[in-house]
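I would like you to help me understand the sequence and structure tokens below and explain how sequence relates to structure.
___
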Amino acid sequence: MKNVVGLFGIAFLAFTPLAHANFAITYSVNGAAPSTCINNPDSTNGSGTTTCFSSLTAIGGGVTAQSWSGTSNSPGTSGITSFQTSSDTTIVATTAATLDIWISAQNFVNPHTPPGPITYVSSLTLIPTASTATPVTLANCVDENNALPPGLGGTFCGAPAPGGTLNNALTGSGSSSVSNNASGLITSLTAPYALEEHIVVTLSAGSHIQIQTSQNLTQVPEPVSAVLFGTLLVGVGIFRRRRLKQI
């Protein structure tokens, strides 16, 4: 998995793009209507406008932001596949505020199930810079609605796949990094779908923090025993047909 450096990070793995597949980041300060950071029709976010807030930029409520970006390999690959989400950003606050950030990478088609379940892992890392205590929550979703984020006509996690939600929570303070992981098992997943994240940062005067996040989906291979059993059945069928011809 990639290491992402920034106040908040997101990158997605996927494979052959479909039409109208976007990579998008929106945000809201203190419950205001969501504003758009990135809405790139290139779902990999590899061309066009790939970064917002190239320098420290006031986004309202005493909050400044810098260098928010992300990547995606949507729509994914077949077989045993991993997806990752990551992105970079810096957030600084001069007063108490609540910052919501939504990310969506659309039109993933792999992995999917059947044929087998999918392991689902999310991670959250906070990198404070002489920061006051700053709680951060991360909601992750594999959304079969394949939606854009709030502010661009979508709703976060409108149709989660069974097992397709994970949550992380941490508080960053001082200058010590902290991280944690969450994991689950997706038992049914129909393509196309979006990988989505909703980050909530509870800021106070003196908050200065980087946030890194990731999502990882990996197809679980069928047990070797099942493959061997299937091979055995084929062999038995061939043997019986040969015996019948000899009678």
